Structures are given as C-alpha cells and as structure tokens.
Amino acid sequence: MRIGLVGAGRIGAFHAATLNGLAAVDQVVVADADASRAEVVAKDLGLQFAPGVDQVLAGGIDAFVIAAATSAHAELIGKAVAAGIPTFCEKPVALDLAETQRVVALVEKSDVPVHIGFQRRFDLGYQAARDQVASGALGFIHHIRANTNDAFPPPAEYIATSGGFFRDCTVHDFDILRFVTGREVVSVFATGANRGEPFFGEYGDVDAAAALLTLDDSTFAAVSGTRYNAAGHDVRMEVLGSLGSIAVGLDEHTALKSAEAGVTFPGGEPHTTFMDRFRPAYVAELTAFTEVVAGTRAVPCTVRDALQAFRIADACELSRREQRVVLLEEIGA
C-alpha cells in the first residue's frame, strides 16, 4: 500500500513514522506547504519526498493522510474526494461549522471513504468503558466526568488559528462522550477563564474551561480542561452508573498525587504530551485506516461524527460568550 501524507509538522512527522512501521504500508510519500520541511522528514525517516500536494495526489497513491494546518483540511479533503482516494484527516474537518457542513455533504455524496482522526476511539480504556455502558453492567449512567489537561500551553501562533479551546481541545472529549455513551448532547452551559499568558485573551480564547452537558437520556456530563497542568498531561473519563462506575486513564501515569496518608498510588511517571498518552491508540487508528483502504473495515469515525462533535464545541463557545444555556438544536443541525 502506497500512502501519501501532507503536513510534516509535529503530528505529521509522527503519523509518517507510524505509517512507515505498519505491515500493510509499503511506501509513504511526504509533502508539506514548506517543501524543505517535508524533505527533512522524508530523509530522516527514509521515506519518499514530493514537492507538493498535487504531485502526491497524482503519484499513484492508494490512500491520503492529511496532517496539514486546519485551514487546509477542507480543501485537501475536496481534492482527495475528487481524485477518488480514500482519506484520513486529522480533526477538525474545517475551521467553522458552515465549511464543515459543506465538506460533510461533499463526502456523503461520494463513495470515497474519509476517516477523521479522533484517536481516543482507539484507546483500549475508552473502548472498555463503551463496552461496559453498552452491556448494561454499570446500570443507567447518571454522571460522566471528563477532562483534558495539557501539561503546558501551545505557542501563540498555534492559538491564532486553533479555533478556540472548545473546538481544539475539549472537542476530543465531546467526540469520545458520544462514542462511549452512544447518546447525543441536547444542551450545554459553558464557561472559561484566562489565568496564564495574555495571548489567549488577545485571540478571544481561554486557557481553562468547563462545561455541563445534558445528554438525550438526561445523563449529565461535566467536561473540563486547561492549558496549564504542570503535573503532566492528564486525560481521563469517569463513568458513574447506578450499578457501578469505571474510570479511563486512571493508572500509574495519572498526573495526580493523593492527599491521604500512606497512599502511594499513582506512583509512575506522568505523561507529558498527548502523543505519549495515546501512542498505542494512534497506531491502532492508522492500522484501522489501512483496513478502510483495503475495503475490510467501515470508516470508524466519519465526517458526520466530526460534525456532531464540532456542533457541541460551537454550542459551548456560544454559551461561554453569552453566559447562557445553549440548545444543540440552535447549532446548525
């Protein structure tokens, strides 16, 4: 299998190395808007270099991976669909809701599989939680708590085009909430604050946020996150049911210390980045994509799944700005 990849930044280089290690992949062709950066990544990993995305798409590839800047996602998906090439694209589909809806319509009119990269769906802990919920082992679910705490903030130039905290960071929590519960969000109330670098506020963003979501079966989900969690990269979910409870991400690497005397758990080294925390999930995700390309697996995270998560993020951003409860039906169905 010959796979073209566009985007040679941090996540693009990471995906290129992962793809290169998969048994189903024979060759990876790397391109980037900055051709010199793609050339360096290709050389470092022993991959093929292409001077631009058009050369990649016209080069006889079997599949296409998009790890470029978010602003380029919609256009690149459109080019891949026009070329009839199965595509994997990092989240989000586009920068705004209208463009996301346009891409969804385009993809769903075609027969080209497009897989959106929400890697938590491939984490064994979240999969186990989903199985527990689906089996009824936890009884009815009354509360869910989910958090995404980054160990350190991204650079200012990233925030400028990120789409904001809810669309960039907690959108992963929104997607995995739908995945684990099989339910939809019907309303949100969200807030946020800036406690660190002033550039967040300069771009209309926040560096810490929280949201209370109500699901369509009256389950409550509390989602929170921060860009400043020096204790470590901390991503967890607690699912609380009438018959039992389960926690995802609670292990020796959890970035917490107990205040109770004599308790040494967790005692391991905390993760520092999302790539450390989800490395096995990323491998499983791209392995699944090769199965989609081979025609042996349905797309595990569709453009419509991405749209639903984006709608929740948009609702939270509107709620934060207007300080009111927002119904999901207000956000472009």
What keywords describe this structure?
333 residues, alpha/beta, Rossmann fold, Dihydrodipicolinate Reductase, domain 2, 7-stranded mixed sheet, 13 helices, globular, oxidoreductase activity, Myo-inositol 2-dehydrogenase/D-chiro-inositol 1-dehydrogenase, oxidoreductase, GFO_IDH_MocA-like_dom
Give the topology.
Blueprint: E1 2-6, H1 10-20, E2 27-31, H2 35-45, E3 48-49, H3 53-57, E4 63-66, H4 70-83, E5 87-90, H5 97-109, E6 114-117, H6 124-135, E7 141-149, H7 156-160, H8 165-168, H9 171-181, E8 185-193, H10 199-202, E9 208-215, E10 220-226, E11 234-241, E12 245-248, H11 274-277, H12 279-294, H13 303-322, E13 326-327
Parallel strand pairs: 1-2, 1-4, 2-3, 4-5, 5-6, 7-10
Antiparallel strand pairs: 7-11, 8-9, 8-13, 9-10, 11-12
Domain Gfo/Idh/MocA-like oxidoreductase N-terminal: 1-118
GO molecular function, one term: oxidoreductase activity
Domain GFO/IDH/MocA-like oxidoreductase: 126-246
